[in-house]
Structures are given as C-alpha cells and as structure tokens.
Amino acid sequence: MLELPEVLAFSKQFNASIAGRRIRAVLPPSKPHKFCWFAGDPADYDARMRGAVLSHASGFGSQLDLQLDNGLALCVSDGVNLRFLESGESSGDHQLLIRFEDGSALVFTVAMYGGIVLHDEAYDNPYYQKSKAAISPFREAFEPYFRALFSASKPTLSAKAFLATEQRFPGIGNGALQDILLSAGIHPKRKIGSLSPEEQTRLLETIVATLREMTERGGRDTEKDFFGNPGGYRTKLSKNTLAFPCPQCGGTISKEAYLGGAVYYCNNCQPLTK
User: Fold this and answer.
1) For 23-60, how does the pLDDT look when each residue is reduced to its tens digit (9 = 90+)?
2) CA nearest 137: which of 1, 2, 5, 263?
3) H or E segment at 238?
4) Exposed e or buried b for every residue in 183-198, given b needs 16+ CB within 10 A?
5) Which of 70, 103, 133 is the last residue of a domain?
6) Who contacts 203 (Cβ-Cβ below 8 Å, separation ≥6)?
7) Within this chain, do residues 16 and 96 fall inside the same structural domain, yes or no?
8) 174 lies in the same domain as 119
C-alpha cells in the first residue's frame, strides 16, 4: 500500500524519468475488479486523455495525482500499483493501461482495493480532500498540529488508532507506523493517555525522522517503484522481518491482528504500559 514516503518518492521519480510523454491510447481493465474504483466508465478515459501529455506528478497524504496538460488529473490512491514499461515489454493484466507515443506504457494494477480516478480538480472524495489539506510532517506547522490533535484526542485511543485512523495523519498507514512506534518505544496498543510529555515529544520527533528517512531512501522495501524496484528503506518491522530478531535489542518480534491489520512489535523495546 502506498503511504506518504512512497507517494512523495514516486512522484519525484515520475517527474525525473516519465513525465513529458504524450498519450497515444488508454486501455480499460483487461478483467473486472470489484474493488477498483473509477470516475464513471474507465472505457471513457481514452477519449478524455488521448493526445494529452502527462506533465508532472504531485503527491500528498496517501494520494498521487498524475497531471495532464489538458486540465485533468489522474488520481491514484493507496492500493494501486504502478509500473512503467519500456517499448516492447509485456504488460499482463491491468486495471488501466496508458500507452505513450514513444511505445512505452504505464500499467495500473490493484491487488485488494484502490482508486484510479480521472478528475478536473473538483474531486470531492473525502480521503483525497483530507490528504490534499494535510499538514506535511516536514513543515514547521506540523508540531503544533500534532500537539493540538494529541490534546484533543480521547486518552483511551491506542497509539495505532491515533496515528492511522480517522485520517488524522493522511499518509501514515499500517506500514509506516510499525517502524515509527518501534523507534519511539511505544507499543501499538498502548493508550495515548499513558504517554508522558517526554514520550509524546519522542513520538512526534520519531514520526518526522522516520518518514523523512523512508522518503529520502525512495520508499519502503515492502513497496515497488515505477520500475519494479523495491524502495531503499529497509523496514525494521514488517512481514519481511518477522522471522528475524528485533534490530534494536535482538529480542523476539511478535505479530497479531489489531484494528484491521497486523501489528508487529518487540515486547522488550515496546512494553505495553497500562
């Protein structure tokens, strides 16, 4: 799933290596996917996009906008996988495929769910709007936003719920939060009301530092970029690391289902304080 580090890193990669190509054709899904959403009929995308240039990408929250030079944009949400193919490379099945005049292509696939929405800047989806309005963790305004939100949140919220539900922090999902909480020394089920002022500050600083490192390294190694390469950030806690000792203390990593997804944690580094 795309989260803020991938959205930012992939938009940079797109602008450096893919932008500027003119669209020759847009192909609708090669087979139906009940949990892939479009704006209307994807078969109509070709008429609206053909001949336009994909000029640049912009990323925010969990959303990636691919801008066309005709005033439209193609919004890609967190569950969509993107792959750039050089001329002659086979594409396989897809939910959308853009062919460029130079023979290259951009392929969109969805495993579980995701949106590929063509819009004209009047896209009123609440996840899109919250992502676009979100305060970046890399801006000075993020600290007062974080502290105000922390103070206004129920003390019975868990650390995971605080970070990854209700779109409080668009772009922080069940992936990035694992390493954030490990580095902060906070169990994902710990109630935020039990955090001391020092722990609150450590959580804030760890959010910023972890997301920055993930972004600068081209995203997490659990996700693949436009060219099929995994991100350069090696996750500390993920499905890829479950069989290995904790990178901080050498202890055992635990996994359990919680709030709609798996959580990973080290009982030594992240004790569940009541």
Assistant:
1) 999 999 998 899 999 999 999 999 999 999 999 999 99
2) 5
3) none
4) bbbbbbbbbbeebeee
5) 133
6) 159, 180, 184, 186, 195
7) yes
8) no
Q: How far apart are CA 83 and CA 26, in angstroms?
A: 15
Q: Is residue 273 part of a domain?
A: no
Position 172 in a domain:
yes
Does 41 reside within a domain? Answer: yes
For residues 144 and 150, the answer to whether their CB atoms sit within 8 Å is: no
How does residue 90 score in pLDDT terms, banded at 50, 70 and 90?
confident
The answer to whether residues 152 and 188 belong to one domain is yes
Q: pLDDT tens across 191-223, in order? A: 999 999 999 999 999 999 999 999 999 999 999
Residue 156 is part of which domain span?
Answer: 142-266
User: 77 φ, ψ to 5°?
Assistant: -95, 180
Total domains present in the chain: 2
Phi-psi region of 223 (alpha: psi -120 to 50; beta: other; left: phi over 0): beta
**Which of 142, 132, 206 shows the shortest CA–CA distance to 176?**
206
Residue 102 makes CB contacts below 8 A (sequence gap 6+) with 21, 87
Residues paired with 67 in a beta bridge:
56, 73
